[in-house]
Amino acid sequence: SASDNALLVISHPDDECLFFAPTILALLEKKAKILSASDNALLVISHPDDECLFFAPTILALLEKKVTVHVVCLSSGNYYGQGEKRILEFHSSCLKLGLQHSNVHCLTKFHDGPNRTWSSEEISEVLLEYLSKSKSKVLLTFDESGISGHPNHIAVNSAVKFMMKRTLSASFTPFVLETVPIVRKYLQIFDIIPTIIFLNQSQVVVLSSFADYFKAVSAMQCHRTQLVWFRWLIVAFSRNMLINTWSTVE
Questions:
Q1: Cα Rg of the chain (Å, integer)
Q2: Helices 83-97 & 56-64 angle (0-180, nearest 10)
Q3: Predicted structure pTM score
Q4: What is the CATH architecture of 15-248?
Q5: What is the C-alpha to C-alpha distance for residues 43 and 70, in angstroms, rounded to an integer?
């Protein structure tokens, strides 16, 4: 159970990686507060397709544990004038992942783009609204580096911090998805080894099975407007398609 400790006995340095990594990560998952079935979870993303490219392992793990997951996408991804198509693709992708249609929301209030500035105050108002509507006690989003460094991703993290400062007694726990160094970002499943080495006690790791990975790939195929060659490389090699590392917001 999550309250128990476990002792792993090995014979050689490197055994923990070569033979026991999936078990270690599975045990870590059991302690994960974000995987508690008693709470609803709200995932906040910036663009349609973020749910597949970055958060699929966590979405699928939460759904498997019977957690009700709500997703709010703050923009329609209309940077190239494809917003209407991308909204439809987003909903199709979320259904593929197993999310309920009524729990998936794609907004058009914020206009996406690397040169667009999003107001922390306006985003925080949206977050508070959907936290209340969904009765979520856990909020999941990007960290301060935004995984890919996209300003729209970073803006959501800034809004969460802004909201935490203004809310003296927050009724929710915010978790942010860790941005790893570029040398680890495209190691896919092989990033298990550095993940274990650099993991600290305050972090939570979610590891997908290969079946879940292929489910995420299937969902990503709904985003037909986005399937240019370099995104296929991301799908094939990104560690975030299989591994999510979470930290709480201080």
A1: 18
A2: 40
A3: 0.87
A4: 3-Layer(aba) Sandwich (3.40)
A5: 6
- pLDDT per position as a tens digit, 16-63: 555 555 555 554 554 445 545 667 999 999 999 999 999 999 999 999
Strands (E), 22-162: 40-45, 69-73, 104-106, 136-142
Give domain limits for the chain. Answer: 15-248
* Size of the chain in residues: 250
Please answer whether residues 76 and 84 qualify as being in contact, where contact means their C-beta atoms are separated by less than 8 angstroms: yes
What's the pLDDT score for residue 152?
Answer: 98
Q: How wide is the angle at C-alpha 208 spanned by C-alphas 204 and 214, nearest 5°?
A: 155
- Tally Cβ neighbours within 10 Å of residue 233: 11
Structure tokens at 49: 């397709």
Which runs of E-coded beta strand occur in 76-200? 104-106, 136-142, 173-177
Which DSSP state fits 74?
Answer: S
Residues 6+ apart with CB under 8 A from 67: 35, 36, 37, 39, 40, 41
For 193-225, what is each residue's pLDDT tens digit? 999 899 888 899 999 999 999 999 999 999 999
